[in-house]
Amino acid sequence: MPEGPSIVILREETARFVGETILHVEGNTTQDKARLVGQPVLDMRSWGKHFLVQLPGFVLRIHFLLFGSYSIDARKENRSPRLSLGFANGELNFYACSVQFLEGRLDDLYDWRTDVMADQWDAAAARRKLRERPALLACDALLDQTLFAGSGNIIKNEVLFRIRVHPLSQVGALPPVKLRALVEQVRQYSFEFLAWKKAFVLKRHWLVHTRTVCPHCRIPLVKEYLGKTRRRSFFCERCQKLYRLAVPADSDVVGPEGG
Q: Side-chain half-sphere of 149: how many Cα atoms within 13 Å?
């Protein structure tokens, strides 16, 4: 699943279509493709894992789910696009993704303070939301798009290793310095992810994600499917401390991932 930094790259790559008019539309989406024809693109934006095209009066939202992808000025062989947008200056194709129309303006539909890569990102609000859900597992918190829009499984694994926190730790048991580090590192790592991906060296910088040996203590890493999200977690049982509440808190319901 593409994470927030990858959607920022898409936004940057498609900036040349802002101000252009959609001349023709193809694809196997069930949405009303005819509605897009003749519409001028007012803006291209990203919120977390959502790619957003602002059109007059409504928004085209693309969510890449687990296996979605895109291509610009080219078609992928033996694959039909879910949606293809043709402009006078090029073509934009989306594959294996969710396509949805949202009525209204982007600023009325999205809270940019929750997007870890947005200028409006509000770290204090993220810490407050975490304190309100003490039983929430760290591995689930970092995938909850209502807390950290744009954070995905790579960011989750790498951030928890950086701050030496076990993925099954409860956020209410984290010392204040660890809670602050968790929130700060999600944003910092996201921008590092962006720079590494643009330089085509992202995987070289992974310390634990998909790795087998801890780079610090040289013991085997653990790979398990943890939390309510059941996503892959890679962690070191020696380096990463498990923090648990002394008194069990009420069970926590994790928000949707933004699908």
A: 25
